């Protein structure tokens, strides 16, 4: 009886080990598939975000070039504002920059839409704040160009809005960089 019992217990242990290892193998395989899918999804999301952020950055670079044409942060007084041949404030330059800003504004709006879809909100809100500053710059420039008046108050407002645009753009860049670096295991 002792030999039969030992054989029966040995068989039960063998069957238990076989079933247990099959169960462990099944669950390990499922986890590996799930982890692989999560890594693939994270990689795809990171690439979508990267493309959206690059589109936004390309648009803001165009805007920055326009701000350099008419650069209120460099004008301390009205006397520093660019003048035309007659010595008057160059309203044609203001009109031209405002028109070019309007043209690039649509591209920025589309890029912001892509950033909003890509997320997350800590990144996308910065692009929206920059957009608001750009709208204010355009409003100030359009108003000055249409009225033919440009005063110290306009200059101060432009300085604040252009500076705000640049500040929000820098916050966007930092948030996007942190997000993308933290999306890569071992980066940053």
How many beta-strand elements?
0
Radius of gyration: 31 Å
Distance between the termini: 67 Å
Total helical elements: 4
- What percent of residues adopt helix (DSSP H or I)? over 70%
Q: Main sheet, how many strands, which sense, barrel? A: none
Tell me the strand percentage band. under 5%
Low-confidence stretches: none
The SSE order reads HHHH
Shape: rod-shaped
Mean pLDDT: 86
Based on secondary structure, the structural category is: mainly alpha
Structure description:
This protein is an all-alpha fold and 188 residues long. Helix content is 82%, strand content 0%. The protein is built from four helices and no strands. The protein has helices spanning 2-69, 91-118, 121-147, 152-182. The termini are far apart.
Topology, element by element:
Blueprint: H1 2-69, H2 91-118, H3 121-147, H4 152-182
Features:
single chain; 188 residues; mainly alpha; 0% strand
Question: What's this entry about, in short?
Answer:
The chain has 188 residues and is an all-alpha fold. The protein has helices spanning 2-69, 91-118, 121-147, 152-182. The relative contact order is 0.11.
């Amino acid at each position: 009886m002792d030999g039969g019992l030992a054989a029966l217990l040995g068989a039960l242990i063998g069957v238990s080990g076989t079933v247990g290892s099959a169960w462990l193998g099944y669950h390990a395989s499922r986890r590996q598939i799930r982890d692989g899918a999560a890594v693939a999804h994270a990689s795809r999301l990171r690439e979508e975000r990267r493309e959206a952020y690059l589109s936004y950055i390309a648009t803001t670079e165009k805007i920055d070039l326009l701000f350099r044409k008419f650069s209120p942060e460099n004008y301390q007084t009205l006397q520093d504002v660019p003048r035309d041949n007659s010595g008057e404030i160059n309203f044609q330059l203001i009109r031209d920059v405002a028109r070019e800003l309007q043209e690039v504004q649509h591209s920025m709006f589309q890029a912001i839409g892509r950033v909003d879809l890509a997320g997350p909100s800590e990144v996308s809100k910065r692009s929206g704040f920059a957009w608001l500053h750009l709208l204010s710059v355009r409003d100030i420039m359009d108003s000055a160009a249409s009225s033919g008046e440009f005063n110290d108050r306009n200059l101060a407002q432009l300085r604040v809005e252009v500076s705000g645009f640049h500040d929000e753009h820098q916050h966007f860049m930092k948030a996007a960089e942190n997000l993308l670096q933290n999306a890569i295991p071992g980066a940053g």
